[in-house]
Amino acid sequence: MIDPTGVVVNLLKADAAVIAIAGARVRGGELVDGDKPPAVIVARITGNRNPGSGGNRRIGLQEVLLQVKCLGASRIQAAQLYGACSDALHMHAPFEDESGRAIFTIADDVGVASGIDPGTKWPYEDGTIRVLAAAEAAA
Question: Which of the following CATH numbers is that of domain 5-134: 1.10.150.240, 3.40.50.11540, 3.40.50.10090, 3.30.2000.30?
C-alpha cells in the first residue's frame, strides 16, 4: 500500500494560491528547523485498506485521512492559507499519481478547527482531508 501523503503535499506545493501565501513551506509530517509562518503541515491520521468492505476481502482501494494544518503569523493568515489548501484539494478530479496509482477522490471531510499551536505558539487552522485511492500502482 502506497501512502498518498506525498501526493497531497505535491498538489499543495503546485497550487498558485498556496504558494502565494506559504511559498515553499509545505511539508509532509513536520516543520523543518528554521521554518517560520506561514507554513502547511500534512500528516497521516489513519488509513483503511478495505473501505466499505468487511472481513478479509481486498477490494484494491485505500481510504486515508490526513490532517492539513495551516500555520500563520496571524489567525487571519492561517484561515486564508487553509482556504487556499481546501480549494486546491476539495473534490480534486481523479488522476494517476507518478507511480501510476489512481487517486479517485480528495475531499474536505470533517471541517476546520483553529487555535494556537502549543509548540510554536503560532495561530493555526486545520482540517481533515479524506483520500480514496487505489491501494497499489497499476500493473
Answer: 3.30.2000.30
More confident residue, 98 or 87: 87
Global pTM reads: 0.88
**Confidence label for 100 from pLDDT (cuts 50, 70 and 90):** confident
* Cβ neighbours for 3, distance < 8 A, ≥ 6 positions apart: 44, 47, 64
- Residue found by looking up cell 501526493 in the block: 7
Q: Is the pLDDT of residue 10 over 70?
A: yes
How is the beta sheet containing 123-134 ordered, strand by strand?
A: 26-28, 39-48, 61-71, 123-134, 102-116, 95-96
Tell me if 101 sits within 8 A of 133, measured CB to CB: yes
